[in-house]
Records
---
Amino acid sequence: MNQFKKIASAALALTMALSLAACGQNNAASSTSSGSASASAGNPYKIGLLQYGQHPSLDNCRKGFLEGLKEAGLTEGTDFTVDYQNAGFDDNVDSQIAAKFSSDNVDMMVAVATPSAVHCFAAAEDKNIPVIFTAVSDPAQAGLDKGNITGTSDALPVDAQLQLIRALQPAAKTIGIIYTTSEPNSVSTIAQYKEKASSYGFTIDAVGVTAQSEVTQAVDTLISHKVDCFSNLTDNNVVGVLSAVLEKTNEAAIPVYGSEVEQVKNGCVAAAGIDYYKLGIQTGMMAAKVITGETTCDQLPYETITEYGTYINSDALNAMGITVPDNIAKNAVEASSVETAA
C-alpha cells in the first residue's frame, strides 16, 4: 500500500510539472503575438524610434508622434517604452541602428524621414516587425507602400508654393532648388516642380548633391546663376544646414522659401507648407491602432496630410524688400506665432 502511494504521488507531481510547463509556453507565446497581449502581461510594448537626423521639422515629427500615442490613451512606461536613436544624417549609422532594433526584437519600429523608413523596413522584413513611418513624401517611390508598413506622407503642395512665390515676386523667372540625388522624396518633388513651373512662368534651376557637405557649394552655384529665389524641399541634407544656406543667400539678397513652418521660423521668407507636429500626431494615432491590436500595418493604408498653411516671416520679408499682397496677408500666419511642444 505504501509503495502504491509513492507511485501515485510521483505521477501526480509529474502531471503538475508538465501542466505548468505547458502553461508557461502558452504565456510566452501570447506575450509576443501582439502588442496588446504584451502590455496586458505587464510587458510594455517596445518601440524602436529611429530619426534620420536632428532638425526642427523632424524633431516636431517625433514629439508629435509621442503626443499622438498619448491622445490615443497610451502611457509611456506602462503601455509602451521607446528606444529613441538619432542617425545624425549618416546612412551607415541609420542602417546599423535599424539592424540593432531587429536584433533587440522590438515590437515596432518607427522611422522619421525616408532614409530611416527604408532601413527600418529592410531590417524588419525577415521578422515581420511592423514599421510606422512619418515625413516620407512619396512612399510609393521609396517602396514603402506594401507590406507590414504604414505611416504618414508629407507630400508638398507644389502648386500652392509656386502660386505663393509668384504672388510675392511677380517679376521672378528662375527658382533655384538644391536636392539630394539619393533621396526619393526630393527626386519625386523636383520632378513635380519641373512639370508645373512653366504654368506659373518659372524655370527651375536644380542642383543635386550627394552629401550634406556639398550643400553650401550648391548654394554658391545657384547664386552665380543669378536665380531670383530659392525654394527648399523637405530634403534632410539641405534643411540640416539651413542656417549656413541662409547666411549665403541673405548676403546675396536672394529670398529663400521654406517648405514648412519651422524653416520659416528659422529665416525663410515664407512657405506654403505643413505643420510637422500635427503630422507626428497623426502618425502616433495610427501607431496606437496597431499597438492595441485594432488593426495591422498591412491593413492600414498610409495617409497623406492634406491641410497646409501659408506661413510668413515678416522680418525676413522686409529685409528682402518683399511686400505681402493683402489677399495673401489676410490668411497667412506669422511663423513666430506658431507654437509646438517643447
Note: The chain has three domains: 2-33, 38-154+277-304, 158-273+308-337.
---
Amino acid sequence: MPHREKGSGPPSIVEVAREAGVSTATAGRVLGGYGQASAASRAKVEDAARRLSYRPNGLARSLIHGSTETVGVIVTDVGNPFFASAVRAITDVVRAAGYEMLLANTDSDPEAERRAIQVMWEKRVDGLIVAPQSPESAERLRALADAGLPLVLLDRPLPALPQVDQVIINNTLCAQRAVAHLVRLGHRRIAVLSEAARDFPRLRDAAPAEGDAERPSAARLVGYAAALRRAGLTPDPGLIVHSPYDRDAATHAVLRLLRRDPGVTALFCTDNVLASGAVAALQRSGRACPDDVSLVGFDDQEWTTLVRPRLTVVRQPNRELGSTAAERLLERIAERRGDGAGDPGTEEAATTGSGTAPDAARDADAQDGQRLVLRGRLIARDSTGPPPAVS
C-alpha cells in the first residue's frame, strides 16, 4: 500500500489521481460515476482507489447526482409499538430500494419537530415521511412542500396541506364498529378514554365523513359519537374521559371514572397505551372484565392476547401503513427525478406492492396529493360481553 503520513486524514480524489497517473477530472468522473473515461483510465483509477482505501465523499456525490440516497422519517413516539412497527416496515422498503433512513423522534414537542424538520432539510434527504405532531405542523412543513421535497404524511392528516400525500387508517369507521359492537351486546353506559377528550364539544355532532380529516384520536371520538347517535343514544359528556398518552395517567383516569360513575358497563380506549392503563385500572378496582365492565382497545399489540381476558381490539395494519408510506415516497422521488414511475393517477399508484391492495383506497377528491386509506378491523375476544344484569 502506498505510504501516507499518519494523521493525514482520508485520501482525497487528488491523491487517487496522482497515484493512478491521471488528471483529477478523470479520477472524478470515474469515482463519481458521471461523464466518460477510457477503459484503461477507469482501471487505473479503480486500482489506485483500492490501494489507497479511498471512500467517496457522500456530500460531494450528492451535489453531483442531486441525491443523498437517504430518506427522513419523523414520528412522535418511536417507543410506541404502533410507530415502531411502521418504522420497521419503512426501513425494509427503502433499504430494498437502495436508500438509507434518518429517524427523528419528537415526543409530540413542537420545537423538537421544528428542529427535526430543519435537520432533515440540511441533510438534503431525498424525501420525508412525517407523523405530524399537531395541525400546526402544517406551517412547519409548508416550506418543504413548496420547495418540491417529496413528502408523505404518516397516520395523521393535515388538511392544510392538500398537495401532500397522506397514508392513514379509516379511524372513524373503526371506532364506529367498535362502539356498535358494545351496543349490540346491550351496553348503554359506554365511556371512552381519549387523548382528544377535550375536543369533544367540537366533535360530538361531526358527520362520520368529516372524521378522518382529524388526527387519529379525534377521528375515533367522532366514530364513538356517531355510533351512539345511530343507536339512539345521546353522548354523555361525563363519559368522555381525558388522558395523555401515558399508562399511569390512563390508569388513574379510569379509576376516577369508576368511582364517579359506577354505572359504566363498557369502555372504549382510542389507543393501545390507554388500553393498557385501563386494564390495570380494572384489575385494581376489583371490577371483573367483562362481567362488570367490557373493554375494547385500539391496536392489536402482543400483550393484548397475553392478558386475561384477552382484549377485544381494533387491529390496525401497522406494517402496511409504513410500507405504503415508503412506497409512495419512493414513487414521488422517482417522479421528481423523471424516472418514469408511472401515472400517479392510476389505481396501481394508490396501492402497495405487498399484497395490501384490497385494503387501500384512494381519495379521488384530494387536490394534488393522494389520500391512501388502509382498513383496520374489529377483533372480538374475551374482554367484551353483555352488561351485568340489573337486579
Note: The domain at 13-65 is CATH 1.10.260.40 (434 Repressor (Amino-terminal Domain)).
---
Amino acid sequence: MDLSIILVSYNDRRRLDVCLSSLQEHPPSAGHEVIVVDNASSDGTRDWIAGAFPPIRLIANPENAGFSKANNLGVRESRGEFLLFLNTDTVVPPGALDSLLAKLVSDPSIGAAGPALLRGPRSFQVSFGRSVNFGAQFWQKLVLNPYHKVRLKKGGKDRAVGWLSAACLLCRRTAFEQAQGFDERFFIYFEDIDLCRRLRKAGWKLVHVPAIRVFHEGGATTSPGAAASRFEYRGSQLYYYRKHNSRVSYVLLRAYLRLNFRYLAARGAFQGEAGARLKQRYADLLSRKSGSI
C-alpha cells in the first residue's frame, strides 16, 4: 500500500459525496486506500457510505472527537507509506494526486507537500505561509494573502514554506510519526500549522506546489455554525500562541480578542439561547490564563 487517503466527516454528506466521487473517477495510479473517519454525524453519512461507496473503509467515532483526533485515528488504522489528509469539501482533478505523490518520492528530504487550492477557476486560496505570530498574522492577511492570490494566478515554481493547509496535505508517514502526529488538544484549526512547525523542527522540508491544483470549497469541517466555528478558531489560536509564541505576542492576541469579543457582542452575534451559551464560552475562554481550549 503506497497511499492512504484520510477524510474526517461531520454532517457534510452532500460535499463528501462530490469529493469521494472525484476520487473514484480520478484515482491515483499508486496502490491506495480511502478511509473516512466519521465524527458521529447525524445526517445518515455512515449508512450512506456503506451503500454508495462500499470499497471505502469507514471508521465510526461514537462522538465528535475533533479534526486532529479523528485524523490520528485514521492514521493508526491506515497502511500507506504516504498519508493524504483531505477535507470533505475538496474535488480532486485527474493526475493531481499522482503529481503530488511524485514530489515526495523524488525528494526524500520533503516531509509534506500541498497543492494550490481554488474555490473557482481563478479564485485561489492562500494555503501556505511562514511564521505565525501576532505581527506575522496581520502581515499575512493584509499584505501577503492579496499578493500571493495574484501570483498564484500566474503559476510559479515550487517553494519551501513554513506551513501548509491540511485541506489537502500529503505527508510522508515516517515524518508524520517522527513529529508525533496532530496535537489532539487542537479540536479544529491551527492543528496543521502546529504539525508543520514540528515537521520542520524535525528537519523535514515542506513544499507548496502551485502547478498542482485542487478545488476546495471551504467550511466543511465547521458547518453549519459560523459563530461556533469562530469560537473554535479563537480557542485554537490562543492555544497555538501559548504553545509556540512569545509572551508579548500572546498578550497582544488576548487583548485583540477581548476587543473583538466586545465588537461581536455589540453587533448582536450571540442571539437566542444558543448564542448566550456561546457568549459565555467566549467569556470563559478569554478569562483563562492558560489559553488552552
Note: The chain has a mean pLDDT of 92.
